[in-house]
Amino acid sequence: MGLVFQGVSAGQHGAKTDAVMSVGTRRSVLLALVLGGVLLGLAAGDYVPLSILCDDVEAICSQYGYGDNITECESDERKFLNPEICNCGIMCIKNLKEGDSCYTSSLTNYPSKMCGPGLVCMQTPSSPNSAMCVRNDAKQCLNETLLYEEEQVLGTLGPGRNKPSCDEYGFYSSRQCSPSSTCYCVNKEGKRLYGEGLFTQDAEMNCKCSRYWEETLNKGLNIGMRCLPNGNFDSLQCLGEICICYNDTTDAVTYGPVSILMIDFMPCYNSKIHTLSYINPCHRAQEVWDNQGSGIIVAEASRPVCSPDGYFAPVQYLRGMAYCADKNGNRIEDYELPIHEAGSMTCNCPRRRQLMEENGYGASKPRCCSDGEYFPWQTRGPHSYCVDENGNQYGTTVTITNMHDLECYSDQPCQTST
């Protein structure tokens, strides 16, 4: 898949369980074991591994007396990888539920049970000799989830509160959703990434391409595979004159490679989102800007900034101003800032506002400040509440008539709003 690339403007912007060693650690353990065997001198006829990197797993596992590895476990089980050598002897371990008794250590190579995804085994304060499976509130995502559930029990949840989605290690899942609004992509720390879709289409979003691009840009690269607007990988990927169909679930090529001249005959080609040239509007605009020739380039006509889907990024630049744009590069209302003040400009609010308007949810679209950020407080029905940079509620809910009691209330929250 390294041959399929998508360009992005340079200016745009797994943890393991304790019981499972990282790949690097397992390799270090294996190196020590193999070298130790060599130094002690293997008896004539003993198996000598082809390398220290588990290239010949079946032979190595057989040499050390392990049978066939288990490859699938039940839904309430997890795989436990043998930490001794090459993960030989993989076993399925029963997942304990929240509140179940557990052990913080094991005297055997394989525990019989382990706390399930998102849970950790912690000692009970009232009984130091016992422990139970709990959600670790030291993880920010789990902490926010526990607070949400506490408010839910108390009946104090506001209309703009969202329940975080956490992965099995307590980090943020790649997709987060705001109530009756949109879903968006984040990294494992919860930082907003490229990719957004209507909340009714959350099941279709996996945000794999968004996280792939975060990793790509962190490596200092600005080319890679093409995404869709919702943060998923585009199933059609092309490089130059060659195209393939790609399945991001199996990480496999499902069709091709074929010439781009046959692109419209490919099963993954969709005339609603693809062009025969495989060039989307922003990349086409970049080509035009780059090919202005040796003449004078008008300074205020800045080079278009593209997202990983080949459409225009939310923030664009013209005549010394940064402004909010839709995916086709058109201005969204009048949201703008002078370029020297726009370092942290995101335009997340206008983009959500437009997405909801286009899909028939305009009545509940958010209120934005003139710089494209969310208005500090939002209203829904008779309620008012404070929101964060993603438009999600924090703090208490009050009636509209008492909005001045909100902690985020100000006589001048932003210069102008729409």
Provide a concise account of the structure shown.
Helix content is 17%, strand content 23%.
What's the average pLDDT? 83
Strand content: 15-25%
How far is the N terminus from the C terminus? 44 Å
Order of helices and strands: EHHEEEEEHEEEHEEEEHEEEHEEE
Question: What is the CA-atom radius of gyration, in angstroms?
Answer: 27 Å
Spans of at least 5 consecutive residues with low confidence:
10-45
Count the strands?
A: 19
Biggest sheet statistics: 3 strands, mixed
What is the approximate shape? flat
Strand order of the largest sheet: 2-3-4
The structure class reads alpha+beta
Residue share in helix: 10-25%
SS summary, helix count: 6
Give your account of this protein's structure.
- By secondary structure, the chain is an alpha+beta fold.
- The chain is built from six helices and 19 strands.
- A three-stranded mixed beta sheet has the order 2-3-4, with no helix packed on it. Strands 7-8-9 form a three-stranded antiparallel beta sheet.
- It is flat and about 70 Å long.
- Residues 10-45 have low confidence and may be disordered.
